[in-house]
Amino acid sequence: MRTLAAAVLATVALCGTAGCGSARDGVEPAQRMTSTHEPTFRAPITTTAPTTSSPIRTTTVSATCADGPWAFGFTPVEPALGNRYLSVQVRNCGPRAAAVPAQPTVTVRDDSGNVVAVQWDWRPPRAGLTVRPGHDRWLRLHWHTSGRCDRGGTSLEIAIGPAKERLEDCLQLGGLSEVTGQPTTADGTWGLAP
User: Fold this and answer.
1) pLDDT (tens digit, 0 to 9) for every residue of the chain, 194 residues total?
2) For the chain, where are the alpha helices, taking DSSP H only?
3) Which residues, other chains included, contact 94 with Cβ-Cβ below 8 Å and sequence gap of 6+?
4) Which residues contact 109 (CB under 8 A, 6 or more apart)?
5) Could you tell me whether strands 130-131 and 153-160 are parallel, antiparallel, or unpaired per DSSP bridges?
6) How far, in Å, are 19, 21, 27, 87, 194 from residue 16 at the CA level?
7) CA 98, CA 65: separation in Å to the nearest integer?
């Protein structure tokens, strides 16, 4: 601490005797250099939007009990720096408490209806798996994007027993990894909220 104080005092003393280039001392402050050279590192500006082969939803579809033991709802697919997140609402429409499976059946298909390879990694649930009548559990899904809407899956089907629902959206999910040649991996876990 003493050496810092000594350095500050020495700088102040030097400025007092030699001058620090202030305008009041008659010394002009340094001028900012300007250049007429335009930088060449700018990326080209494109005015056309990329095309997508499936719609991009911006609204949540809520679970509504109609017939069957379970109803499903979906949030929009949320992008985040190369990742995608989707929450699936699962409502118990039955007359008594029932358990959701720790690993529900999830099938991803492309525009032609072909199954797209996805390796699901199911994490331990963040909430109990038993759902009271009229209550919900949320299945949170996460994956790394495949880059474009026309690559990989455009529909995701979730099934719990005989009940199932399909979401069609720009998923950017599935296919084989260009690096490993293995199916795309995705993960999911159950929770109480989206």
Assistant:
1) 555 555 544 554 555 555 555 445 555 555 554 545 444 444 343 333 444 444 455 667 778 888 789 999 999 888 888 788 999 999 999 999 999 999 999 999 988 899 988 888 998 887 789 999 999 999 999 988 766 677 778 899 999 988 999 998 888 887 766 556 677 788 999 988 87
2) 2-18
3) 69, 70, 133
4) 115, 116, 153, 154, 155, 157
5) unpaired
6) 6, 11, 14, 67, 65
7) 15
Q: How far apart are CA 81 and CA 57, in angstroms?
A: 19
Residues 160, 162: Cα–Cα separation, whole Å: 6
- Contacts for 170 with CB less than 8 Å, ≥ 6 apart: 52, 54, 55, 56, 77, 149, 154
Tokens coding 187: 């993960």
For 154, the token pair is 């455009």
